């Protein structure tokens, strides 16, 4: 009993030390599990993924389980910082490092890449060479543009001209689409797509946002494709901005939207009936996009969000005098040329949308933002 109490106290002291006080895999604070074969402290969620790698990692609770002296000594010798120096020795700048809120397939494949495949230990450069190759091919299931059916398609990433092509058949010589890396974004959307490995690829085509929805039944395949996209995007950004540092470019490779969901929208006179639309707000391009449904291939329209100094503002509003709206939590968004009125179903939705609008409005505009604003105005 004395040894048990002593060992638990040692582990609790260890987990409070810098490096150990965050989960080794997702960064969440106060991990209370540990892999006693790898020597890392992890959170409850990540410990579950370690259990799927019994040949590599074995886990115990640092509070509830019995720890032998030899295991505690190993944890003292190793710890998260020492393990990171081994298993994350050469993680490429473009490689996506998942956090607590990321989807399961991203976190699972990050753990497998580190400890099972040992991709970043410099023992085998096969994976790094694949991500950095001039051509990267992947077969994925893609949702049809006008129906819900997913069909097998061949995707080809090219560093030679910084494009993503996809083909209908394996022997097709002409691609169905050629997509530039300039405005391409990729983000996992398992709930929206209805598949645990669902990936959304978005890009500009004729000044309108176009979406591709894809998945692969194999988690490693789809995450490798995602990181290959990031590698190609990163190479494009390095060529476009040769003087910028990696840390300045990494946030631009792929971006999560600030807020997504349904709101009701009325027309320019505000006497038109409200219509339910799916909205996506992204801070990177400062645009509020709207679609008829979440899995639409092409946007119905876009609203640019500038700064307060340039006449943009957001405020709560009332639904009084509005026609046809079923929801009553209003948002008024002012632009130099028009007032937009949106309705949310719940107060929490209204609050989150308001916060997202204000976050974008508070960010200073870049020269590219001014160009996007001008293009949208010309388009109107």
Automatic annotation (TrEMBL):
Recorded GO molecular functions are: GTPase activator activity; phosphatidylinositol bisphosphate binding; phosphatidylinositol-3,4,5-trisphosphate binding; zinc ion binding
Cited SUPFAM superfamilies: ArfGap/RecO-like zinc finger, PH domain-like
**Keywords, alphabetical:** Cytoplasm, GTPase activation, Metal-binding, Repeat, Zinc, Zinc-finger
Mention any one GO cellular component term assigned to this protein in its UniProt record: plasma membrane
**Main subcellular location of this protein, as a coarse class:** cytoplasm
In the record, biological process GO terms are:
heart development
**Which part of the chain is the PH domain?**
256-362
Taxonomy, superkingdom? Eukaryota
Specify the Arf-GAP domain's residue ranges: 8-128
Subcellular localization is given as: Cytoplasm
Gene3D superfamilies associated with the record: Arf GTPase activating protein (1.10.220.150), Pleckstrin-homology domain (PH domain)/Phosphotyrosine-binding domain (PTB) (2.30.29.30)
Protein name, UniProt field:
ArfGAP with dual PH domains 2
